[in-house]
Input
Amino acid sequence: MPWTTALIPPQGGRRALVTGGTSGIGYEAALALAGAGAEIVLAARDTGKAEDKAAAIRRAHPAARIEIRELDTARLASVRAFAAAWAREGRPVDILLLNAGIAAVPRREETEDGFERQLATNYLGHFALTGLLLPSLRREAGQASGETRVVAVASIAHRSGRITFDDLQRRRAYGPQSAYRQAKLAMLLFALELDRRLRDAGLPVRAIAAHPGVAATAIARRGDRAGPLAARIGAGLLGLIGQSAARGALPLLYAATAPEAEGGGYYGPDGLWEIRGDPAPARIEPHARDPETAARLWAVSEALTGVTYPL
Ligand SMILES: NC(=O)c1ccc[n+]([C@@H]2O[C@H](COP(=O)([O-])OP(=O)(O)OC[C@H]3O[C@@H](n4cnc5c(N)ncnc54)[C@H](OP(=O)(O)O)[C@@H]3O)[C@@H](O)[C@H]2O)c1
Output
C-alpha cells in the first residue's frame, strides 16, 4: 500500500521545527504534521509570509498549534540568535526538518559571512543550526510517541555533485547548478555523518535524509534571482515533469514520522529516476556514502561556522 499522510502516526505531544515552511514542500510538510497533531514551529526568514501560512494551516486544522520564529539560514548571526533564544526557553524538539533552500542562483553571491549563497542557505546554516540545537533535541529513549529525528532535505542533484574542498565557496569556478549540487550533496553527507555520530554518542536521536523527487514549487520561479525567462522555463519544466508539492513532501514526512524509516536512511519517490512516486528508500551515490569525505566536510563546516557539536 502506498504511504500517504493518512499513515502518519499520531503526533500529539511532539514538536516539529521546520525551516522553509513558508512555501513548497516545507509548507506541505508543516501542514501534514499539524494535521497529525504536532506542534509546529515555522522558522522563517519572512515572518509576515509565515503568518499567512500559519493562518492557512489553521484554516485546514483549527486546533493546530503553530509558532513563528525568525530565522535566516543564510546568516550565521540569525542562526545563532535563533538558537540562543530557543535554548533559553528549554523546550524540546522532536522533529527538526532542515528544508529551507534556494537553487540555481545565476551569478555567484556571497553572504555576510563570506559564504557562497547556495551553500550557506541550504547547508552551512543548517549545519550550524543543528549543532546549536542539539541539546534541545528530545532525549528520552523509547518514547511512546516516536523517535527524535533530524531530517535533512537533499536532492537527486547530489548524484553529480562534488565537494570542492580546495574551492568550497566556488570563488574560482562558479556554476549555478554545480553550486546547488554541491550544497545538496553536502546535506546528504551531513545527514549520514550526523547519524553515525549520534549513534556513537549513544543518543536516542536519528538523522535521516529525504528528497522530494521533482516537485512543482516556487524554487524555480524566483524571478528576482533567475531572471524572468529562466524562471519561467524552470517553473515550466518542474510543472511538466514534477509532482505536486504535497506529493513531494511525502518522503520528508516519511523520514520524519514513519516507524519504518531508519536512521542513516535516505528516502525519495519510488518512480523512474526517483522523480515522482511514493516514498521509498532512495539511491545514495557511493561518493555520498564516503565517511572520509563526510568527516572532512564536518571538520571544515565546524571551522567555517564556529559551531562545534557537543558529541
Ligand atoms: N522542488 C524540487 O523539485 C526540489 C527537488 C529537490 C530538492 N528540493 C529541496 O526542497 C527544499 C524546499 O524547496 P521547495 O522546492 O519547496 O522550494 P520553495 O517553494 O522555493 O521553498 C523554499 C523555502 O526555503 C525558504 N528559504 C529560502 N532561503 C531561506 C533563508 N535564507 N532562510 C530561511 N528560509 C529560506 C523559503 O522562504 P521564503 O518563502 O521566504 O522564500 C521557502 O520557505 C529545498 O531545500 C530544495 O533544495 C526541491
Summary: The chain has one domain: 9-304. The first helix runs from residue 24 to 35. The radius of gyration is 18 Å.
